Backbone:
């Protein structure tokens, strides 16, 4: 069964890396679209006169769209194919970028952000599934990590462009080109990478496992020949037959397929859902959606707050590269354990720092030395997340489910992730009004729970073929 994966002919070639990189561009748009609002939060709040509840919803509404997109991505991918579904995501993201930049009020902003969120949700499901299905087993973790690398690069580019546009205009709320305020251009520039993604996706092959499921074995063999660099027809046919055997009893996946005989969800589905929920409940997106506002509120200038946020995103990119180097060497589970332990400690330090704050609400101040300590703890927290839960969860979700339920199970897990993301993002402004110490203490508690969950429930998948995954 592992002959193909270990054969000298089964080395990764430039073709499979390029294909995986194109698919991972969906992750870039995922990161860009969700983080771009960071620099616009204060300006939108001022322009539309929003309270904490409304600004929280305006920031997080895209995540509801993402949950919807993730939910329907599996059925769309099984009906239309992985490539066509990625094209749908590109269109939704392009339309959303233009619409969000030209809004008249908060409710049409919410609408266009929902549309973009659906595109992000679709991409969040299809990219890791597609990459897992075209990747050789011995490097599947590294190629799967390209999704997270693309996400953090998208976050970095979004935050850097926010900072640049705000600098050029003299502030996010100031007019820039054609009489449009800088915060509007922050959304409009997202249309460019969305169009590029849509064009590049036209050039990648369909998933071989989808092709086999549709009875197109010759086409599937052609794709496998490209991505596995196989010249041995016998080994190639063996791989096609192996995929076919795992899919032979396949019917169109339904939610009922995720249930076990005695009732309730299959254990592997619960593990996928909880991985997704914990990835968000540790509060990572508070850093990337609200960090400019957060650092501004505790005494840093707007310009310095933008610089800190961009620096944090650079740190996130660098540690993701470390994760890519480690995920196929030391495995998925050890990285998750290390990440959970580190996040628990650093979040607890942040909670302690904010417990020393003076004032409250928008007037909170961190006296020396607690501001710098909180800043260091926040960046260490990002390092621990970026080397573990950021990339590893996407790798696991792309590979941990059996072939017969992969698309629908991944869709359910991703939808749970987006709902958890929404819950954290929408509630943070209110939690911040209660107290930042309370908010970060809560996230620290979830990080500790994630540590126990990984030890008890997560199974290592390093080096396993997708056909070996079980319920």
Residues:
């Amino acid at each position: 069964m592992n002959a193909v994966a270990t054969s000298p002919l089964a080395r990764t070639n430039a073709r499979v890396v390029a294909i995986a990189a194109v698919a991972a561009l969906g992750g870039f748009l995922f990161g860009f679209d969700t983080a771009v609002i960071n620099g616009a939060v204060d300006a939108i709040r001022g322009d539309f006169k929003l309270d904490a509840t409304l600004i929280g919803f305006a920031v997080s509404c895209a995540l509801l769209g993402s949950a919807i997109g993730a939910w329907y991505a599996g059925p769309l991918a099984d009906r239309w194919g992985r490539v066509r579904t990625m094209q749908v995501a590109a269109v939704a993201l392009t339309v959303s970028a233009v619409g969000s930049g030209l809004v008249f009020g908060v409710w049409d902003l919410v609408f266009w952000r929902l549309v973009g969120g659906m595109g992000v949700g679709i991409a969040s499901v299809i990219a890791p599934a597609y990459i897992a299905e075209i990747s050789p087993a011995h490097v599947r973790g590294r190629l799967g990590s390209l999704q997270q690398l693309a996400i953090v690069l998208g976050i970095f580019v979004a935050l850097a462009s926010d900072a640049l546009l705000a600098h050029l205009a003299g502030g996010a709320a100031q007019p820039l080109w054609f009489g449009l305020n800088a915060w509007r251009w922050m959304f409009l520039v997202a249309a460019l990478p969305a169009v590029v993604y849509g064009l590049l996706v036209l050039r990648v092959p369909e998933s071989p496992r989808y092709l086999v499921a549709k009875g197109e074995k010759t086409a599937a063999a052609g794709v496998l020949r490209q991505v596995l660099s196989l010249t041995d027809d016998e080994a190639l046919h063996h791989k096609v037959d192996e995929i076919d055997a795992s899919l032979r009893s396949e019917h169109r996946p339904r939610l009922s397929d995720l249930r076990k005989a005695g009732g309730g969800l299959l254990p592997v589905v619960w593990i996928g859902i909880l991985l997704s929920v914990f990835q968000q409940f540790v509060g990572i997106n508070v850093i990337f959606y609200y960090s400019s506002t957060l650092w501004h509120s505790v005494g840093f200038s707007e310009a310095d707050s933008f610089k800190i946020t961009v620096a944090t995103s650079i740190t996130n990119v660098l540690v993701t590269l470390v994760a890519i180097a480690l995920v196929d060497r030391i495995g998925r589970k050890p990285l998750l354990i290390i990440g959970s332990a580190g996040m628990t400690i650093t979040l607890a330090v942040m909670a302690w720092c904010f417990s020393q704050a003076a004032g409250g609400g928008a007037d909170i101040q961190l006296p020396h030395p607690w501001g710098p300590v909180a800043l260091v703890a926040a960046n260490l927290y990002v390092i621990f997340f970026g080397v573990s839960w950021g990339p590893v969860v996407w790798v696991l979700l792309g590979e941990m489910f059996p072939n017969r339920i992969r698309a629908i199970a991944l869709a359910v897990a991703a939808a749970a992730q987006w709902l958890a993301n929404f819950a954290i993002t929408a509630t943070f402004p209110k939690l911040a009004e209660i107290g930042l110490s309370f908010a970060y203490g809560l996230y620290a508690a979830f990080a500790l729970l994630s540590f126990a969950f990984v030890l008890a429930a997560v199974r290592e998948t390093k080096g396993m073929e997708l056909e070996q995954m079980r319920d």
User: Anything to note?
Assistant: Confidence is low (pLDDT under 50) at residues 1-12. The chain has one domain: 8-204+253-468.
